[in-house]
Amino acid sequence: MKNQFDNIRVLDLSHVLAGPVASMILGDLGAEIIHIEPPKGDDSREFGPFIKDVSAYFISVNRNKKSVVVDLKKDEGKRVLYDLIKISDILIENFKPGTIKKLGFSYEEVKKIKPNIIYASISGFGNDTLPEYRNKPSYDMVVQAYSGLMSITGTEEGEYVRVGTSIGDIIAGHHCAISILAALYIREKTGIGQYIDISMLDSLIYILENAILRYTVTGEIPKPLGTKHPTITPFQGYKTKDEWIIVPIGNDSLWLKLCEAIKRNDLIDNPKFKTNKDRTENRNELNGILEKVFMTKKFSEWKKIFEKNNLPYSPINTIDKVVTDPILKYRKMLVELNQPDLGKIKIAGSPFKLSETPGKVRTHAPSLGEHTEEILKNLLNYSENKIKNLLKNEVVYSYKYKK
User: Fold this and answer.
1) Nearest CA-CA partner of 118 in 175, 174, 179
2) Does residue 169 have an active-site annotation?
3) Domain for residue 241, yes or no?
4) Which CATH number does the domain housing residue 370 bear?
5) Distance between CA 343 and CA 402 in Å, rounded?
6) Which of 69, 183, 271, 302 could form a disulfide with 369 if both were Cys (CB 3.0 to 4.6 A apart)?
7) Cβ contacts of residue 372 below 8 Å, gap of 6+?
């Protein structure tokens, strides 16, 4: 069976992470991704770690894509983009609001070129926003802080900390891809394209789970809790004799099983710990008991006990342990990419496990301008002479891998 998006072409004008995540998702699902880069390349090509001066960061989020380098500051370059828009289904951009309009490719202008285009913009605070936020520069860490996410992340006694991955960019990229899929569905039914306005701030507000509700319902301002859950107890990490163990006891039935497993049946009938509400209200007292219990054995011993009693648990794995875990191999979540000039590189696989058309890492990440000539010749039907002139005048750039 063919991939669901075999006939879908994405013109990806985005850079660094939020937009490239959106196009990576569509690429994993089979869409053709044409990544338009400036002469100096996507900014993320300068981000480490590096392999022979090539950014592994760029490689990790730009698999399944083709690179075309166009100088959009030149009129001839704008004409190339114009021609590519005519044959594309989707355009993704994450420039600072207003930038692409100055280039002459706002949604209103692009819709004149391709009336049913799906045009997706990602920015920190949205394109349709308050005037004072429209030109506000933004990075992932800005929205992590502004959204309140950083205010609930960290230890109880420590400083606020950034979430350990660029979650503001990544979630916005996912929300962008979901919106594009919805717009494609509508277009299939109506023939009408849409404009999509994704805000990184909106995306983090959307995933704040119960933090906003806790304030709007109770007036409580949520604070960092380390590994603790704000409303479920025990639902956190505990130190054992040698490692940490995560103990997520999500209901009263599991609480009974835990008490029996750790041989503390006396806790079952204690009115302070009878229900989750009781346990959460008396969390400090309960934790004083459980912390001592878990320190009596090593993690390996607790593992056997939790496994025997079918209780949820986990070690706190470091990344070296994660990438060698057999489940990643079984689930194909660590795949080998044969990157020309560099050899084999291991990157994260696709999480989209559809029975007939699963997401796949099919092709390596492109070098800068690797597909410029191919796209101009095969998709735009430019003559050899025209392509040669565009290259000579540095309107477009091309690169060939070393043989």
Assistant:
1) 179
2) yes
3) yes
4) 3.40.50.10540
5) 12
6) 69
7) 67, 68, 69, 70, 396, 397, 398, 399
